[in-house]
Amino acid sequence: DFLFFWGAVFLVTTTLVAFLKKENQELIPAKEETKGITDTYRLLFSIIKMPAVLTFCLLILTSKVGFSAADAVTGLKLVEEGVPKEHLALLAVPMVPLQIILPLVISKYTAGPQPLNTFYKAMPYRLLLGLEFAFLVWWAPKVKHEGGFPVYYYAVVLLSYALHQITLYSMYVAIMAFNAKVSDPLIGGTYMTLLNTVSNLGGNWPSTVALWLVDPLTVKECAGAQGHTCATAAATEV
């Protein structure tokens, strides 16, 4: 119902914009960034060939490997340990105001000549929070009781998520500020899109790999089945 309602809102809004909003034909841009798709890709290729851009892309493609497992797997492991999915979803609600306020606060620190300083400072704290998340997963079965989980456990999880959001947004806003700062104004849109796309890829591929590695790296014990390790799906089924 939720998805259906907002899907309908998006469709109605987009349709109204399409029919009611008219382009101002009198305003002609002083200079177009590119003339077509071919020119755009030629431009992107010439940008990415620059040594500084190539080095930067390699750095941001690998900078998030350290916390990929904590980001991608923690929620799934908490559910596996018995934390109800609906309770984890409810914990996301208090994060919404924080997610709105954080970029506004952090932007004051990324507006200077060296926006990546905030990125560097947030990284070790985000790595430490990965250990904190591992502790939360380990702690879950210890505090679980017949009625579920105590309130203080959810409080610790909520606080951990809030701290994680602070480090995450510090790095996110800093990298966006840096991309905006270094992009050539004449081709700003194309330049920024390239850097932001690489930045997004740098966050997505480590999470995908982390999820793929969960099963082979998980140590399992078979109860009542001598000689079986449960290392594969077929062995677990047996």
TrEMBL record:
GO molecular function term, any single one: acetyl-CoA transmembrane transporter activity
Membrane topology field: Multi-pass membrane protein
Subcellular location: Membrane
Species in which this protein is naturally found: Nicator chloris
Keywords annotated in UniProt: Membrane, Transmembrane, Transmembrane helix
Gene coding for it: Slc33a1
Chain segments annotated as coiled-coil in the UniProt record: none
One Pfam family of this chain: Acatn
Protein origin, superkingdom: Eukaryota
GO biological process, one term: acetyl-CoA transmembrane transport
SUPFAM superfamilies linked: MFS general substrate transporter
Name of the protein this chain belongs to: ACATN protein
